[in-house]
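[step 3/7] fold_predict: job queued, chain A
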Amino acid sequence: MSLRIALCAGETSGDQLGAELITALRQRFPEAEFSGIGGNNMRAAGMACWWDAGELAVMGLVEVLKHLPRLLRLRKAFRQRVLAWQPDVFIGIDAPDFNLGVERWLKQRGVRTVHDVSPSIWAWRQGRAAKIGASADRVLCLFPMEPPIYAAHRVDARFIGHPLADAIALTPDRTAARAALGEDATAPLLALLPGSRLVEIHGMLPDFAEAARRLARDIPGLRVLVPAANEKCRAAIEQVLADNPLFRVLDGQAQQIMIASDAVLLASGTAALEAMLCKRPMVIGHRISPLTYRIVRWFGLLKSEFVSLPNVLAGQALVPELLQDACTPEHLHAALLRWFRDAVAVAALQPRFLEIHQSLRLNASQRAADAVAELLPLPCP
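[step 4/7] structure written:
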């Protein structure tokens, strides 16, 4: 019987990771069968999708509660179908709230399990590593600080590098990016990324926009580009910006916009890592609810000195993080102005960003396939 590999990805980024992993595994095992939950990319890579990844794409507490009965039914049906199919390994790609439960159930019944993309245990509640190890025989990590945390809990974890580091050139072409966006090659340009969720846009964009307006008074000819992740985000962004000619809202193209920019203003998250890989100076601005912030601080839930990945990976404050009460238009403006006026400071970032980029650029899909192949019953080619 040919090798059987079951997978589950729950969103667009996971679908892309899954497709790349399937392609890398098929190079090793041409006759292997792939089935599970995925999207168009995984289908194109040759996976039989029993359910579409969109079934799991539910965000926000209210939405999750609304869809919880359906999601629980889906998880029960999916894990039973996986077990009946008798795969040689199950790979859960991100979506930990769904996948870790499936993995644990299957592992208890003798199926080898892999969790691809470790949750951010380096930042929050490192004790979760033991629980993740109870679900996954092996955890694949995108960052080098993660495997030692798992090792302390006797969990098998492998650092595979980050797929974004593979995808983004070590020296991005700013001139080409500006030409592709139809922007002047020499005009000062700010990329403004308030987040891809409506709650982030409503919470952060008014202050981000005011900081940009203040910056425009100091930097003649400034252009501000704002990528919108989807139609709902675009409508929310345009409502806040109110047709101000300073701002240009584009559909997607966030990476291209960052490469083209002189500096980036963004909320923390993967976008900060992406801006670093694009070699752009940035300012991080972020707020959570005051109650949540107090709980995090009171109980010591935040284990990292920094919240943005560039600073976490560097182990020092390479870029400003303006959080909670410090996240004001005044402070954001002052931090941005430095990147536009201090060419020496901008130049000093470049070798540090390049060093981190190279440390993450390890051909993640191939390394993930290697880690999965070691668990399979067939000898590795």
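[step 5/7] annotate
Residues 61-85 form the longest helix (25 residues).
The CA atoms of residues 252 and 286 lie 21 Å apart.
exit 0
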